[in-house]
Amino acid sequence: MKVRPFEWRDLLILHRHRHQSVFLDSALVLTRGSLLVPGALLSYLAPTMGVFTYVSNGGSQEDPLLIGQVIHTQGSQFAHLTFLTPEAALRAPMVSRLLEHLVILSGERGAQRVIADVDEQTAAFDALQGEHFAFYSRQRIWRFHDHPERESKPSAWRTAISRDSIAIRSLYKNLVPGLVQQVEPYAAYNPRGLVLYQEAELLAYVELKYGLRGIWAKPFVHPGADGIPVHFLNLLHKIPNRFGRPVYICVRSYQSWLEPTLEELGAEAGPRQALMCRHMAIVQKAEIRNATPTLERGHAEVTSPITRLKSN
Fold first, then answer.
1. Range of lowest pLDDT (88-97, 214-223, 294-303)
2. What are 267-291's pLDDT values in tens digits?
3. How far apart, in whole angstroms, are the C-alpha atoms of residue 183 and residue 176?
């Protein structure tokens, strides 16, 4: 078995398996499409863009080819698996070699972890578990096709700005479990989304990602917030530059209490997905010893008199 970079001659195979692929980056697929062939071509023609597609085979012509892809932005702490294809080959031994190669490649570029979101009922879930990908949370994606019919009240949502970062960080730290924060640390120095305040307290922040095919929204809502149905109804009308695109709201398991509200507003629920991560670095706290300047840089100051004793 060997792993090699994707080449133009693999286009026919990739196109043939386009309906047999397992996609592992829901935000990318729902906002920009699968990018199956375009992404593979980009990795072949412009590898410096951070898209890497590789092919693995079983060592003989009878064995099927397995194709996988990972995306890593230079300087990012994590890489994201985007797809594996065909699904029928995910139980073959060659999947181990391919995944390990993509993980090593990501680590060489400076990524500390590789993440993926996957349906637990697929062979991809078992394949990732076999390669030491650990489960760290769950999510469900809710889709709004159109604006709700009901009229919304005047909205308190507004676009987040840099001065909201401290309040957003505090909300994130209080809401998100520590296990998730280890994988997805808060990094919104320039937040991209909407905030909702009540007086001076931040009640909710919704992170937004845009693509030609849709808008991805990930809410962080304080459990003590009142009037959630009205707030979410207003949110759908407040999202800027929607232009008729569907809105996908990603609800993590620690915010599952939001799901009845979304169902009430007419959202369509997707299947539950497992969030998985392969760590390549262990974060440890460095011990910093407190320096004592008086003892380390000079002599002790004499603060008491010295008595001379005379012998008789």
1. 294-303
2. 999 999 999 999 986 555 555 555 5
3. 11
Say if residues 219 and 187 touch (Cβ distance below 8 Å): no
pLDDT of residue 150: 56
Q: Which candidate, 164, 172, 159, 166, places its Cα nearest to that of 222?
A: 172
Question: H or E element: which one contains 218?
Answer: strand 215-221
Which distant-in-sequence residues (6+ apart) come within 8 Å of 191 by Cβ? 160, 161, 162, 164, 165, 168, 205, 207
State the residue for tokens 């023609």. 45
Contact 191, 164 (CB under 8 A): yes
Provide the CA 229 distance to its chain's centre, in angstroms.
26
Q: Are 51 and 38 in contact (CB under 8 A)?
A: no
Match 């599952």 to its residue by tokens: 256
Give the whole-angstrom CA distance, residue 190 versus residue 57: 43
Nearest-angstrom CA–CA distance, 171 and 221: 8
**Domains of the chain, start order:** 2-132 (3.40.630.30), 143-272 (3.40.630.30)
Write out the two tokens for 126.
């078992």
> pLDDT over 70 for what percent of the chain?
85
Q: Where are the alpha helices (DSSP H) in the chain?
A: 11-16, 26-32, 36-45, 94-108, 123-130, 165-175, 178-183, 228-238, 259-264, 293-297
Beta-carbon contacts of 177 under 8 Å, excluding residues fewer than 6 positions away, are: 137, 254
In the three-class reduction of DSSP (H, G, I as helix; E, B as strand; rest coil), residue 166 is classed as helix
Whether the link from the prior residue into 86 is cis, omega within 30° of 0, is yes
| Residue 65 and residue 10 in contact, taking contact as beta carbons nearer than 8 Å | yes
The rounded distance, in Å, linking the Cα atoms of 98 and 68 is 7
Give the separation between CA 194 and CA 241, rounded to whole angstroms: 13
